[in-house]
Design a protein that fits this description.
The chain has 171 residues and is α/β, with parallel strands linked by helices. It contains seven helices and five strands.
Length: 171
């Protein structure tokens, strides 16, 4: 089985107005990490960014100055990584919505694979009613909010939740 753990950090909540500025992708195939990458993506329209969003995800212009730019080739490479996978993330529909907007912007037709939301897994493992990642981090031993709202940290926490779910299934 191929799992694509994915998280995006964005300049706001609306994929029509805001953009992805950080993307982390970890591919696990048959239990082995086969790919891990974090992309800082230079915003093209920083003027439309939500100041709150930028504060939450730690955007600093200097850090992103050497970042990547989206291109048709970048979208094609990302699609190739996602092909045949199950995309796993926390509130993953949010991330997929932004990716759909980018793919559309570059005229790339792609049928997104199935999704698995770690919010659902957290409910099944710990019985939480409140499913924000920050609440889960505060409530679960071995998790921490340190580094939160950065794409790779959020992906690593999704992997942790997924692993706990698999452990529970195997009991």
């Amino acid at each position: 089985m191929k799992l694509a753990f994915l998280d995006t950090e964005t300049t706001g909540l609306d994929p029509k107005r805001h953009e992805i500025i950080e993307l982390a992708l970890v591919i696990i195939e048959d239990g082995e990490r086969t790919y891990e990458k974090v992309f800082k993506i230079k915003p093209q329209h920083i003027e439309t960014a939500s100041p709150v969003a930028l504060q939450i995800n730690g955007y600093k212009e200097a850090e992103w100055a050497e970042g990547y730019n989206w291109s048709r080739q970048a979208v094609e490479r990302l699609a190739k990584h996602l092909e045949g996978a199950v995309i796993v993330g926390h509130n993953v529909k949010f991330d997929i919505g932004f990716l759909r907007a980018v793919f559309k912007q570059y005229g790339f037709s792609f049928r997104f694979p199935p999704e698995l939301d770690t919010k659902t897994l957290a409910r099944l493992v710990w019985g939480f009613d409140k499913l924000s990642m920050d609440h889960i981090r505060e409530s679960v031993e071995d998790m921490t909010k340190e580094g939160a709202h950065r794409a790779l940290k959020d992906v690593e926490d999704c992997i942790f939740i997924y692993d706990k779910f698999i452990e529970k299934l195997n009991k």
